[in-house]
Amino acid sequence: MITKSSGITATEQLLAKFCERSFLKLWSYPNPFKDDRHELCDILAVFGDYVFIFFDRKNQLSEVSEKDPQILWDKWKRKVIDRQVNTAHGAERYIRSGRSIFLDPKGNTPFPLAIDPQRAIIHKIVVAHGAKDACKRVSDQNIYGSLAISYCETDGISTQPFQIEIDKKNPVHIFDSHNFSIVLEELDTISDLSNYLDDKKRAIAKYDFLQYCGEEDLLGHYLLNNDNETKKHIIGTKQYVVNGVMIGEGEWHDFIKTDIYKNTKKENKISYFWDELIQRTCQNALDGTLSGNSNILRGESAIFEMVKEPRFIRRVLADKFMQAVANFPDHPNQFTRQVTFLPSHIPNVGYVFFQLRTPDAFLSQPDYCVKRRILLEIACGAAKNKFPHLIKVIGVGMDAPKFAGGTNSEDFILLPCKTWGNDMRAYYEEQNQELKFFETPRLKKYNEHITEFVPLEP
Length: 458
Known about the structure:
By secondary structure, the chain is an alpha/beta fold. The strands form 4 sheets. The chain has a 5-stranded mixed sheet, with helices on both faces. Strand 9 and strand 10 form a beta hairpin. The longest helix has 29 residues. The N and C termini lie far apart (52 Å). The relative contact order is 0.08. The model has no long low-confidence stretch (mean pLDDT 89).
């Protein structure tokens, strides 16, 4: 059983809630500690080689004062931005040193996720609160009161109020009271967030400067800007004659008013079925009630693979799962099963969704769940034989929800099959002789083109 902090301050608790949604329950931990019993950061999220270090700081910038606004700004920036940036650099150095991390100040509970200091891809994120209202008062053009950010070669001198310069050679992501929730709501999968931050770091390194009026505007630019070759969002342009990028005010404000954005948010609602399926299993792992032999925390599991899917792929997968549930045939008191194969967005990876309905007498047998898992494994092996290009098959099995009466359990299987010798092929062919997974004449194949943003139907 793993006990996590929920954050200490109100803003930390809010940040923890957003991070738990993006990184899910098993991969984000508020208030971890170093071996000297001092806090490492406010939230540490780790998934595979990705390490996200969050710092949250609130200090209200005075609304009315006789002091010089520049003096007030410099003081606020030192407390909320500069100190946290330096602490973030220190946290990265600590992690890369390989020293121990703990979930409690006494060092009794080790941080449960492994970090390889040499391979770690680290993103340092500071969430700064307290300047929003003052920022909006200064400029009518500042729609949300967001901080303007510039990544450049900086000498560290004072900046104009509400404008922050960050050293492009050692970048830290700066979010504020308004846009941190936008970023973590829009990019609420590990894949989506890491892709954005990775490309942001790429752009920072490529250009002499990257400037924008608010992180939400940079996000809007990113989501609207596609590389046709890689089929990915990018910041800036692939033209080498450009030496800097500046994003103006209003990119995000205009984007979220479009019909395609609103319709996509509506269409994405079904995708959270995928998240709920994962979250239940993660909670069981935290509670110590998860059975099986997978190493879910270390990445050797079906759940770990499922988490890699970005939001728009989760939308499609969840939709197909739900269609399979709705289409399950009704044959009372008979053994009835259905298998559905779906590709992942990761090349050569696929999913097998297995539903089973049995007579009550068989369902009540003590080894029923074992038998159901065996059938799921055979279905995964049959999928590999049917589709030889696969290097991983993720199996999800359950009693047919349409007839489960509100109670159910799930089985998850990860079948690594990059190496698939004749003995493995023959074994699953033999096991599948009577079951005929993916060999029945009723097998149907569908081709479907999907897009991240869903336009309104004419």
